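Incident log, support desk, overnight shift.

02:14 A customer reports that sequence design results differ from what the structure should imply. Their input is reproduced verbatim below. On-call engineer (initials T.W.) acknowledged and began investigating.
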């Protein structure tokens, strides 16, 4: 089976707490601290150790976005449902004004 791990680089004016709430709202998930559990997977919301707002407009500037979120599927989730969930999350964040760049083996399917 293909690797379904995905890292989502997100840049926005929200705090970590606010971003967690927004993600929970988008995926209809439950939060436990900074982890959101959806039917299809889990999203860990993390502040990016490499965050540098002066570098976000450079080539590969997404590496310096404020948040670096890890996304993994549930064991019972099929690939199609998981990819659709990640795609919907990206669309939802972008609709709320966030800059979002996925880094995963299937990024061409969710961008």
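02:41 Re-run completed on a clean worker. Output:
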């Amino acid at each position: 089976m293909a690797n379904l791990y995905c890292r989502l680089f997100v840049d926005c004016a929200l705090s970590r707490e606010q971003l967690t709430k927004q993600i929970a709202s988008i995926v209809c998930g439950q939060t436990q601290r900074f982890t959101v559990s959806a039917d299809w997977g889990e999203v860990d919301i993390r502040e990016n150790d490499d965050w540098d707002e002066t570098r976000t407009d450079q080539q590969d500037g997404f590496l310096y976005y404020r948040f670096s979120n890890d996304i993994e599927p549930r064991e019972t989730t099929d690939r199609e449902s998981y990819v659709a969930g990640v795609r919907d999350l990206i669309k939802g964040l972008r609709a709320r004004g966030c800059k979002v760049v996925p880094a995963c083996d299937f990024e061409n399917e969710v961008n």
